[in-house]
Design a protein that fits this description.
The complex is a heterodimer of chains A (164) and B (293). With 164 residues, chain A is α+β, with helices and mostly antiparallel strands. Helix content of chain A is 35%, strand content 15%. Chain A is built from six helices and five strands, in the order ββαβββααααα. In chain B, a hairpin with a 3-residue loop joins β4 and β5. Classes of the chains: A alpha+beta (164), B alpha+beta (293).
C-alpha cells in the first residue's frame, strides 16, 4: 500500500473530495467511491469504450487514467446527461425510440461519446458518426439503432446543416 | 484496481521530473497513459514510481514556424488533430492521426508518449521518421537531440537512457509544392496497424521526383525508411509503372508474424500500401503545382 492521494474534483457539477490509493482508476473511483455505477467497466485496457466519460468536456477512457489525475478537473458521467428534472436528454430519448439500447452494457459509453460529437459537430455525417463510434464496442452488434438515434438527434439539432 | 501499487508523483516542471526520475528506482514516466496504463492493468508494467508529466505545462506546445514545426512531448493528439495551423503546414500528421486509436484516446494521448513507447505499428513515429524529425531529450546531464532514425532502436526500444525524458520533437517543413499520403490497413479504424505507409513527395514541372520519403510501420520490429524505394524513384518521371516497380522493393526484407497476419501477408501489404501511398502523394503533388501560389 502506497501513501493515499487526495482527489478533489467535480462530477456532474457536484464537488467531491476523497482519499484514494493512487492506483485507483477513474472508472473504479466513480463506481466504488462515489457510487456512480452508470459508468461501466468492460475490458479495462482501453479497447471497449464502455467506461467513456467526459473530462473537462472531452471524452476519455475512465479505465486509462487514475482518479488522482482527475483532481482539479470536471468529470461528466452518464448520470449527468439527463435534464435537471430527471427527464431524458434528446440523445437518451432517441436511443430508446430507435432501439439503440440493446443489452445496455455499452450504452453509457456510447452516450458520452456521442454527447461530445453532437456538441462539437452538429453537422456530423453518418460516416463521422460511425467513425466516432468505432471506439465503442457493442457486442450485441446493435450499431444500426445507435447510429439511427445519433442521426435523428443531429437532424433535429441542425436541420439546415443537413441540407448542405 | 488492476495495476500493482505505485507511488504517484506530479512534478510541475521538466527539471523536477528529471530529478524525480534520477532519485527513484523502477520509475516510469506517465504521459497520456493510453499505452502505459493498459500495460499496468495487465501487470506487464509494474513501476514502483509513476512520474506524471500531465502537470508539466511547458511540454504542451505547438509552434509552427516557416521552416520547422516544434511540438512539445505532452502535446495531445487532439490538439494536433484540430489545429488548423498544423493541418495547413503539415497535413500528413492529421491524416495519420485519423488512424491513431479513437477520439477518446486521442483526447488524452500525446505525441511524446507515442514516440517514446515505440510500438512498431504506431502511426506518429512513422510520420516523424518520414519527415526526418529530430527528438529533443532532457536528462541530468543536460539536453541532447537526435534524429528519429537513431531514436527508435528496435521493438519498443528507444535511445532514451533510463534517467532521460523525451521533451519535444522538431519537424523540418518541406518547402514548395509537394504531396503526402498516410495509408493504413487495420482490422477496424483505430486498431493497431497491420501495416501502414507514410509518403512525402516533391515533383518538378516535368513530373520528375525531386525528393521523396517513404516510411513503413507494422512490418518490421521498428518503423523503417524504405531507402531502396526512395532511390528507385528519385530523378525519374512519376508514372504507374515506376510506382509499381518501386513499391515491389517494399516487399523485400523480413516481416513480423503474429495472430493477425503472416510475414508473407505483411510483405504483400507493404507493397500494396506503398504503391497506394506513392500514387496519392504524386497526385497531390501535381495538384499542388497547378494550384495558384
Amino acid at each position: 500500500m502506497t501513501a493515499p492521494a487526495t482527489v478533489a474534483l467535480t462530477v456532474n457539477d457536484r464537488p467531491y473530495e476523497k482519499q484514494v490509493d493512487p492506483r485507483t482508476t477513474l472508472a473504479d473511483f466513480l463506481r466504488q467511491h462515489l457510487g456512480l455505477t452508470g459508468t461501466h467497466v468492460g475490458c479495462e485496457h482501453g479497447a471497449c469504450g464502455a467506461c467513456t466519460v467526459l473530462l473537462d468536456g472531452q471524452s476519455v477512457r475512465a479505465c486509462l487514467m487514475f482518479a488522482v489525475q482527475a483532481s482539479g478537473h470536471a468529470v461528466t458521467t452518464v448520470e449527468g446527461l439527463a435534464n435537471p428534472d430527471g427527464s431524458l436528454s434528446p440523445l437518451q430519448s432517441a436511443f430508446r425510440e430507435h432501439h439503440g439500447l440493446q443489452c445496455g452494457f455499452c450504452t453509457p459509453g456510447m452516450l458520452m461519446t456521442l454527447a461530445e460529437l453532437l456538441r462539437d459537430n452538429p453537422a456530423a455525417t453518418e460516416a463521422e458518426v460511425r467513425d466516432t463510434l468505432s471506439g465503442n464496442l457493442c457486442r450485441c452488434t446493435g450499431y444500426a439503432g445507435i447510429v439511427a438515434a445519433a442521426l435523428d438527434v443531429l437532424a433535429r439539432l441542425a436541420p439546415e446543416a443537413k441540407d448542405r | 484496481m488492476k495495476p500493482a501499487p505505485f507511488a504517484y508523483h506530479a512534478p510541475s516542471s521538466l527539471a523536477a521530473a528529471v530529478d524525480l526520475l534520477a532519485q527513484n528506482e523502477n520509475a516510469k514516466i506517465l504521459a497520456g497513459g493510453q499505452s502505459l496504463v493498459p500495460m499496468m492493468n495487465f501487470r506487464l508494467a509494474m513501476p514502483d514510481h509513476l512520474i506524471d508529466l500531465n502537470p508539466v505545462t511547458e511540454l504542451d506546445r505547438l509552434t509552427v514556424r516557416t521552416d520547422s514545426i516544434e511540438i512539445g512531448a505532452m502535446t495531445r493528439q487532439r490538439r494536433m488533430e484540430f489545429s488548423n495551423e498544423l493541418r495547413q503546414a503539415c497535413p500528413i500528421i492529421g491524416e495519420a492521426l485519423q488512424h491513431v486509436g479513437h477520439r477518446q484516446t486521442r483526447n488524452r494521448g500525446t505525441i511524446g508518449g507515442s514516440l517514446a513507447h515505440a510500438d512498431p505499428s504506431a502511426e506518429l513515429p512513422t510520420v516523424v521518421l518520414a519527415l526526418d524529425g529530430v527528438i529533443e531529450i532532457r536528462g541530468p546531464r543536460g539536453t541532447r537531440s537526435m534524429p528519429m532514425a537513431e531514436f527508435a532502436l528496435g521493438f519498443m526500444t528507444t535511445a532514451l537512457e533510463p534517467d532521460e525524458i523525451m521533451s519535444a520533437v522538431t519537424l523540418p517543413r518541406w518547402q514548395g509544392p509537394h504531396g503526402y499520403a498516410f495509408v493504413e490497413f487495420a482490422r477496424r479504424l483505430g486498431d493497431f496497424a497491420v501495416a501502414a505507409a507514410a509518403v512525402m513527395m516533391a515533383l518538378d514541372a516535368k513530373g520528375t521526383v525531386t525528393r521523396v520519403a517513404v516510411a513503413l510501420a507494422g512490418v518490421g520490429p521498428v518503423q523503417s525508411r524504405l531507402t531502396a524505394v526512395e532511390e528507385a524513384l528519385r530523378g525519374h518521371r512519376i508514372e504507374p509503372a515506376l510506382i509499381d516497380s518501386a513499391a515491389a522493393l517494399a516487399a523485400e526484407g523480413d516481416a513480423n508474424e503474429d495472430i493477425h497476419a503472416s510475414a508473407d501477408y505483411r510483405r504483400h501489404l507493404a507493397q500494396v500500401l506503398t504503391a497506394r501511398g506513392l500514387a496519392t502523394a504524386a497526385r497531390r503533388a501535381q495538384t499542388q503545382m497547378k494550384a495558384p501560389a
